[in-house]
Every structure is written in structure tokens, then in C-alpha cells.
Amino acid sequence: MTVGKISLTCWIIFGVMCLAFLPVGVGVMAIHALPGTIRVVLAIVVVLGLWWGPFAYAMYLSMAVVRNGDRRLLKRGIAGTAEVLSAKATNEVIQEGEFAWEAPRVYKYRLRVAIPDRSPYETDCRICASGIRQGSAVRVAVSPHNHKRVTIDIGQGSKSSKKGTATADVPGLMTAGDVRARLFPAGTVDSSTVDSSPEVEDMTGQDDQLSANSERIDQLARLGQLHSQGVLTDAEFAAEKAKLLGG
Q1: Average pLDDT over residues 6-20
Q2: Residue 110: count of CB within 10 angstroms of its CB
Q3: What is the edge-to-edge ordering of all strands in the sheet holding 121-127?
Q4: Least confident interval from 44-58, 77-91, 118-132, 177-191
Q5: DSSP letters of 60-114?
Q6: Residue 115 phi, psi dihedral angles, 5° rounding
Q7: How high is the pLDDT of residue 241?
Q8: Spatial distance between the Cα atoms of 173 and 155, rounded to a whole number of angstroms
Q9: How far is CA 176 from CA 86, 188, 203, 204, in A?
Q10: What spatial distance separates the first Cα and last Cα of the chain, rounded to whole Å?
Q11: How open is the CA angle 108-113-116, to the nearest 5 degrees?
């Protein structure tokens, strides 16, 4: 379940409890098998838990996870990479003390996520981060227990990065050097050959160049993943890579 669906579920529960908190409380008080004091405490706990618990969690998801990216997930989640399949600005903003026109806008990104020991899969990520273009590659963190819950690493916590934006200089975006390092790990290919390859030199860190070669990069990324998982031997990896670069 994505963060958006979790948040929607919380708001639905909160809305229902706005209407049903009195019947729920009366129902708990009607359990005469329990002592009066315990019934009062139980009614308060149940009503507050079902009513204000979802509200508090929904606000946390909005203010912390969607607005700033899930820093907790970045620390404790599974590190991976993702290809941006689509990028869409929503009509939603997350306001936190600013004027309404200053509040950052929420963007919805469709991602194809790749993490260790799992086939690539698609999911959505909602985050206040502009400038991430379709076809680019980003670093992500994935929840260990809910792989659909993903946050994009846009350099949260980095003093040199500007909160709420993502550019080629933000640590969360992979440069061509990052892609090349993942595709050609040390010891699998002669570095002098890689450096002299005109196709590889075309991927020099510019986002527009990555977009222009997104299909080839995607093929190379899949090839590198098969090699890292042991599906391809070093020789097979080198042969298939040479075919792609020479095509």
C-alpha cells in the first residue's frame, strides 16, 4: 500500500469516527461485565485511538513523509534505485506556516523500483519535490515490510541541497557517473575501454543526455542487475554489454 492510500484510509476512518464516536463510547460503556472505572478508561482509549489516532497519523504522513520525504525510511529502509516513468504536479499543497501561495506543491511520480533480491516493480511516490523529469533515475528507500511504500532521496538533511527541489546537483538524483559505476563495477571490465567508449562518454552527467539515452541506459541497467544477481557470468555480461554499446 502506498503512502497516498494509507493517508486516504486514515482520513476515511477519522471521518467515520467523527460521526460514530458517541455510539462507540456508549457501546463500550454498555459492557456491564467490566467495572465502571475500567469501562470509562476503555471508552476513552478506544474513542481517542480510533478517532484521533488516524488523524494524527494522516497529519504525520502529510507533514513529514510527503512534504519532506520520509527521513526515517531513508535511514532504516532498503536502498534502491528507480526509473521515473511519469511525473505529475497535483493540485495539492502541504502548508506549514507559509502563505498558501508559498506552500510546496505535491508531485506524484510513477516509479519502476529496483532493489536487491527482487524483480523490478512499479509503484507511486507522492512528495514535494519538483524538477524530477520523466526518464531520469533516482535513489529511493523502500519499506522492508511494505515494498509499495517508497520515498525518493532528494538529499534530505543535506545542508547543500535546497528543500523541496530536485536538480542534477541534488544528491538524490543519479548522475551518469552513478549509472556508469553501477553498470561497470570495478574488476568486471577494463576501465580504459569504458572511458574511451564514445557511447559512454555521451553520458556525462547532464539530465537531458540521460533522457535522450534512457532506453539504452534502461537496457544496460537491467543487464547490470542480472549480472549482480549472478544470472550472467562476467564473460556473458561483458559480451552483452559490448553488443548494446556497439549497437
Answers
A1: 89
A2: 16
A3: 121-127, 105-114, 78-93, 137-142, 150-152
A4: 177-191
A5: HIIIIIIHH--HHHHHHSEEEEEEEEEEEEEEEE--SSS-GGGSPEEEEEEEEEE
A6: -130, 160
A7: 80
A8: 9
A9: 20, 18, 5, 5
A10: 40
A11: 150
- Are 168 and 175 contacting, i.e. CB atoms less than 8 angstroms apart? yes
Q: How far is residue 7's CA from residue 60's CA, in Å, rounded to a whole number? A: 9
CA distances from 88 to 106, 131, 132, 133 (A): 9, 11, 10, 9
Look at residue 210 and give its three-state secondary structure: helix
Using one digit for the tens of pLDDT, what is the confidence trace for 195-220? 444 544 444 444 455 444 566 676 77
Helix (H), strand (E) at residue 137: strand 137-142
Mean pLDDT, residues 72-81 taken together: 90
* Crossing angle of helices 214-228 and 234-246, rounded to 10°: 170
> Distance between CA atoms of 89 and 73, rounded to whole angstroms?
23
